């Protein structure tokens, strides 16, 4: 069921009043109606491209934010138009649980003070997440006053150096959920698992080479993965140098130097990582690469013998990654910040 | 002085620096053997749970599945059966590639559980997997069979040295419920199991503990300073734990008529809820610290004696009635139920935890089939305020506060408060302050079996029942079971679709009422 309101040349207080009225009507229609109260997601987009972002949000599935405030920036606009709706999904949740969505069309001049428009629209006491997929960073700066979390995707930034600097800048002011970091999660889990059995644990100190293969847009995801290894294992990474499609450099570990390669795989169809190979001082190595039904793992012994198997797992897709980003906004990962710092050292 | 060997060992056992911050902790390479792999539980729960773990990337990077069952079929047919079961019962639509990869190396060993050749083949199969990998994997033996086979299988595992650990790999045995049908059986079974296994290898499953809702009780009690100061006999008047179902026994007559409500739900699930509600805060949330506290609660429960059972417990059976507007038959009219059966489909108990915190607080347990509504909840009723200054005519007045923890169907917490009715007079009526988990956590909870299989693979026994816990549960229920089995007269009846038998009211203290189901 859906309740809808819209107005032209409106104001934040009118939008807020309309939301309250929609909620009251919904309660009147059904006493058992309950609004979801998880988090506010404020999304700032170019109005021209908002459909694409709406599609992504529609497909995040169970991790849908409870109140989405979509601020669509339109060239030449001087007034504020808005529409608001409440949707519920009793089939999926087993109760009449509702989500609110507000779209506010604003002009470029509104962006630097967007907080004054959005503030009355967020549900007080819930975590507020801000996301600017079309790089309206001025809006993010303004909204940081009322947000606790910045959602970003470092692959949206054409220059990796800028992307890590930008993320580090936000990281100093709020908790950052970087979709590029989340793309590396299955890889981090699998690499951690390799060294987890006690008999393999000591080998973590004998890594001499790390190669990460990635989508052309995902240098940051690759550098975050290496940055994670570096900070968890106490390596001092140096700046990476470009050789064709590869970034190459070294990190200083306690006992050895570690060769680092970030290799572009241009055939990849989706952003993210394609594979990782970790080499040991004994000549042994192991790799994980995308494969059917999960990650194809290859272990090469010091004698050169190879074993291959599949570490099972389904692809999450881009909507799945965004949904995971929304979920992660309510958690805290202490390892992202240090990994980002290491990535910054490698890329800038 | 530290020797070189000790130093190496210490270094090896140092914490894995890569796990910090990971939401999902690594699980070591595992061979999982399901005894009873073609059975109903395996098809409906275990295989779909394994698929969902695989889908999420939660299974170890090296994982092998071996099914053992009596049906004679080749590996390929077992894979086909497993695929069909997963497609039918998985909570999400399977990804064909993940499903194929999960099952394409699965093995099947047909045979009787008491046949030694089954275990010889199993040993060979496990060793082949280990040899192919170059090191031994952890082994999980999941006993999803009729209880009579538990000692048979565990004994055979022992004879074939399959429970032995090699290098640093672990061997664990997951044992389904019911763990015995009375105290003596539970003690015998424990003895036979522990003759072969170390207690740390025995994972007695009660899938109820794998439910998020049940684990949330620990969060509710120990993560909120609001409740702890009143969580004792000074403030709590009584507790009612209800596990009501609105359906009958369906096609489970074979099992249910020999078990009854007490064995089916009270001895395990409901006593577990009682322990979680009443336990002291554990020192840590390690498996043994949590279970130590739970066992203390069970030890503190005043045990009924054969002479006092009638004062502690009431059995009843559903008769004909109306369900959702339709006339329905009673228990004796259900398929395959003996016409003279006196098996209880309803059980109500009045227990008391006789310790410093709870002495004198009645704790009522109630479970039944074909009751008015499906609900599992714990209602904690506080003592009334000492002075009722607001009593005025024309209102229901001040009622004691209640804290209601609902496990299903809508998981949440409700607190009833007295509030002033708008108007010029000071009239009070109770209102509800309600919190539904679904409004704050939109994530889908994993199936209990997913969580428990994962914990067993990871070696976390917190949500599994320890030997002394099982026996302590039986010490409470055994006298009741014996008394009820010895009764020769007719069993109390209640109408299908009702609130249960009137006889249950006799357990309540004067002035108390059962909460409406």
Describe this structure in words.
- The complex is a heterodimer of chains A (348) and B (517).
- Chain A has 348 residues and is of the alpha/beta class.
- Helices cover 32% and strands 32% of the residues of chain A.
- Chain A is built from twelve helices and 18 strands.
- In chain A, strands 1, 2, 3, 4, 5, 6, 7, 8 and 9 form a nine-stranded mixed β-sheet that branches. In chain A, strands 10, 11, 12, 13, 14, 15, 16, 17 and 18 form a nine-stranded mixed β-sheet that branches.
- In chain A, strand 16 and strand 17 (294-300) form a beta hairpin.
- In chain A, helix 6 (160-171) packs antiparallel against helix 12 (336-347).
- The model of chain A has no long low-confidence stretch (mean pLDDT 92).
- By secondary structure, chain B is of the alpha/beta class.
- Helix content of chain B is 35%, strand content 21%.
- In chain B, strands 7, 8, 9, 10, 11, 12, 13, 14, 15 and 16 form a ten-stranded mixed β-sheet that branches. In chain B, strands 3-2-1-4-5-6 form a six-stranded parallel β-sheet, sandwiched between helices.
- The model of chain B is unreliable at 1-12 (pLDDT under 50).
- The chains are: A alpha/beta (348), B alpha/beta (517).
């Amino acid at each position: 069921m859906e309740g809808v309101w819209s107005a032209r040349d409106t104001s934040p207080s009118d939008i807020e009043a309309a939301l309250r009225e929609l909620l009251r009507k919904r309660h009147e229609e059904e006493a058992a109606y309950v609004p979801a109260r998880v988090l506010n997601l404020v999304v700032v987009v170019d109005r021209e491209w908002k459909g694409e972002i709406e599609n992504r949000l529609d497909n995040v599935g169970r991790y849908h934010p409870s109140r989405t405030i979509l601020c669509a920036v339109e060239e030449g606009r001087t007034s504020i138009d808005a529409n608001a709706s409440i949707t519920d999904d009793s089939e999926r949740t087993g109760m009449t649980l509702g989500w609110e969505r507000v779209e506010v069309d604003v002009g470029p001049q509104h962006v630097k003070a967007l907080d004054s428009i959005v503030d009355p629209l967020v549900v007080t006491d819930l975590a507020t997440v801000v996301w600017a997929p079309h790089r309206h960073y001025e809006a993010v700066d303004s909204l940081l006053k009322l947000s606790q979390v910045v959602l970003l995707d470092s692959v949206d930034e054409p220059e990796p150096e800028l992307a890590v600097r930008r993320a580090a800048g936000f990281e100093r002011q709020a908790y950052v959920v970087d979709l590029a970091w989340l793309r590396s999660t299955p890889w981090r889990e699998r690499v951690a698992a390799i060294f987890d059995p006690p008999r393999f644990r000591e080998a973590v100190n004998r890594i001499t080479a790390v190669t990460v293969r990635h989508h052309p847009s995902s240098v940051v995801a690759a550098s975050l993965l290496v940055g994670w290894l570096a900070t968890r294992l106490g390596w001092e990474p140096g700046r990476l140098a470009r050789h064709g499609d590869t970034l190459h450099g070294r990190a200083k570990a306690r006992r050895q130097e570690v060769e680092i390669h970030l290799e572009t795989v241009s055939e990849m169809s989706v952003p993210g990582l394609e594979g990782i190979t970790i080499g040991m001082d004994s000549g042994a190595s192991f790799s994980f690469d995308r494969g059917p039904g999960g990650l194809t793992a290859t272990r090469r012994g010091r004698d050169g013998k190879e074993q291959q198997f599949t570490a099972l797992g389904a692809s999450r897709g881009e909507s799945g990654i965004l949904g995971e980003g929304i979920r992660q906004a309510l958690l805290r990962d202490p390892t992202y910040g240090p990994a980002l710092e290491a990535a910054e050292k490698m890329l800038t | 002085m530290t020797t070189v060997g000790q130093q190496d060992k210490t270094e090896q056992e140092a914490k894995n620096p890569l796990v910090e911050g990971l939401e999902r902790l690594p699980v070591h390479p595992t061979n999982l053997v399901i005894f009873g792999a073609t059975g109903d539980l395996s098809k409906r729960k275990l295989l779909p749970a394994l698929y969902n773990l695989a889908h999420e990337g939660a299974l170890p990077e090296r994982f092998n599945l071996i099914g053992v069952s009596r049906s004679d079929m080749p590996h390929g047919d077992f894979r086909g059966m497993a695929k069909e079961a997963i497609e039918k019962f998985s909570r999400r639509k399977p990804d064909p590639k993940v499903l194929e990869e999960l099952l394409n190396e699965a093995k099947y060993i047909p045979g009787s559980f008491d046949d030694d050749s089954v275990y010889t083949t199993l040993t060979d199969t496990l060793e082949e997997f280990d040899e192919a990998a170059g090191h031994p994997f952890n082994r999980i033996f999941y006993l999803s069979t009729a209880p009579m086979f538990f000692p048979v299988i565990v004994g055979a595992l022992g004879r074939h040295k399959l429970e032995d650990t090699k290098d640093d790999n672990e061997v664990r045995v997951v044992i389904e419920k019911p763990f015995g049908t009375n105290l003596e059986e539970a003690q015998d079974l424990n003895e036979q199991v522990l003759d072969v296994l170390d207690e740390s290898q025995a994972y007695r499953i009660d899938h109820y503990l794998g439910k998020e809702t049940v684990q949330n009780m620990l969060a509710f009690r120990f993560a909120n300073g609001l409740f702890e100061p009143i969580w004792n006999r000074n403030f709590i008047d009584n507790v009612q734990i209800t596990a009501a179902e609105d359906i009958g026994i369906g096609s489970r007559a074979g099992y249910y008529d020999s078990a009854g409500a007490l064995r089916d739900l009270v001895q395990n699930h409901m006593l577990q809820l009682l322990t979680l509600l009443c336990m002291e805060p554990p020192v840590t949330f390690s498996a043994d610290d949590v279970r130590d506290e739970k066992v203390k609660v069970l030890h503190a429960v005043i045990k009924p004696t054969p002479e006092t059972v009638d004062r502690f417990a009431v059995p009843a059976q559903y008769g004909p009635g109306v369900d959702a507007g339709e006339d329905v038959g009673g228990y004796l009219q259900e398929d395959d139920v003996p016409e003279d059966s006196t098996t209880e489909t309803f059980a109500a108990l009045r227990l008391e935890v006789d310790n410093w915190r709870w002495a004198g607080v009645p704790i009522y347990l109630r479970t039944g089939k074909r009751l008015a509504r499906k609900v599992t909840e714990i209602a904690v009723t506080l003592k009334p305020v000492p002075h009722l200054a607001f009593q005025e005519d024309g209102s229901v007045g001040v009622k004691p506060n209640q804290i209601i923890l609902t496990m299903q169907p809508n998981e949440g917490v409700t607190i009833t408060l007295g509030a002033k009715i708008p108007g010029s007079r000071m009239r009070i009526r109770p209102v509800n302050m309600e919190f539904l988990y679904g409004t704050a956590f939109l994530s889908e909870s994993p199936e209990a079996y997913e969580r428990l299989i994962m914990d067993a693979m990871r070696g976390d026994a917190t949500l599994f029942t320890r030997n002394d816990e099982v026996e302590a549960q039986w010490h409470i229920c055994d006298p009741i079971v014996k008394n009820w089995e010895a009764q020769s007269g007719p069993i109390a009846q209640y109408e299908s679709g009702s609130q249960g038998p009137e006889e249950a009211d006799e357990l309540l203290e004067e002035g108390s009422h059962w909460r409406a189901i």
